[in-house]
Specification:
Length: about 260
């Protein structure tokens, strides 16, 4: 290699990052147009005319999913921001953030249940309804009653991606627990087929999807867990995985809180 010449793997990584930036930029405008158009059809009847109940339900789903796509683009931006150490320090309730993350995941995997869940006001009723779907939630420790201090969008993104991953590979049940007295501790366990020991490190690499015939049709391009690890490590935390073939998988995340500067 000539003096001053950039290694090929660094060149490839730089090219991928530039393509990623271009993708984020080019997706922003069309997604905004879709979201605004669906919203106008729903709420500007005097301009666009009345719609039937069936049309309203379809438009509402288009609007929800266009906003979901916008949030995915925002996720990519948040990962890039985290690499630069950019965080929005704020106090926020963990349990509400957890519920929002679950709703976003179910919007993709079980949209009919989301409409029912959105009408439930009690957190206890919310949890009971989820248990019928095989999703069991437990929040204990300090953050059961006190807010956590960090970047809420990034914590919600971590929860959403871990939950989405568990939904893809579970058989019947997911257990999600949050605890901690200082650092925030998140545990997400599924009862799926498990991950072979040889693959437990590569699952955190970009664009990696395990060769699993049973789940060959599962959506995804292999960016979720890679993004989670990038976020967690940028936040000063750590992520670990425990898994055995035939015995499911458990992800463990630790996130230290940020201290709000006194005014």
């Amino acid at each position: 290699m000539e003096k001053g010449e950039e290694p090929q793997n660094q060149k490839d990584m730089g090219e991928k990052e530039r393509l990623f930036d271009l993708l984020i930029h080019d997706l922003t405008s069309p997604l905004s147009i879709v979201s605004t158009s669906a919203n106008n059809l729903l709420h500007k009847i005097e301009r666009y005319g009345p719609i039937t109940d069936q049309q309203r339900r379809v438009l509402e789903r288009i609007l929800r999913n266009s906003r979901k796509a916008q949030s995915l683009v925002q996720e990519m931006i948040e990962v890039l921001r985290s690499k630069e150490g950019l965080f929005q320090k704020e106090l926020f309730p963990i349990e509400e953030t957890l519920m929002e993350s679950i709703l976003e995941v179910l919007e993709v995997t079980a949209s009919d249940e989301v409409e029912t869940l959105c009408r439930i006001e009690s957190q206890e009723e919310f949890k009971k309804f989820l248990e019928v779907q095989g999703i069991f939630i437990e929040v204990t420790g300090k953050y059961c009653h006190h807010p956590f201090c960090h970047d809420q969008k990034k914590v919600q993104q971590i929860l959403r991606n871990l939950m989405s991953n568990a939904m893809k590979y579970r058989q019947k049940r997911i257990d999600l627990s949050v605890s901690g007295e200082g650092d925030l501790l998140i545990f997400v366990k599924d009862d799926g087929r498990g991950i072979p020991q040889r693959d437990q490190e590569i699952i955190f690499q970009r664009f990696v999807r395990l060769n699993d015939k049973k789940n060959a049709e599962s959506p995804g391009i292999g960016l979720g867990l890679a993004g989670v690890r990038t976020l967690v490590e940028a936040m000063g935390g750590e992520i670990k995985v425990e898994s055995r073939e035939g015995f499911g998988t458990r992800f463990m995340v630790r996130i230290p809180p940020l201290n709000l500067k006194p005014r």
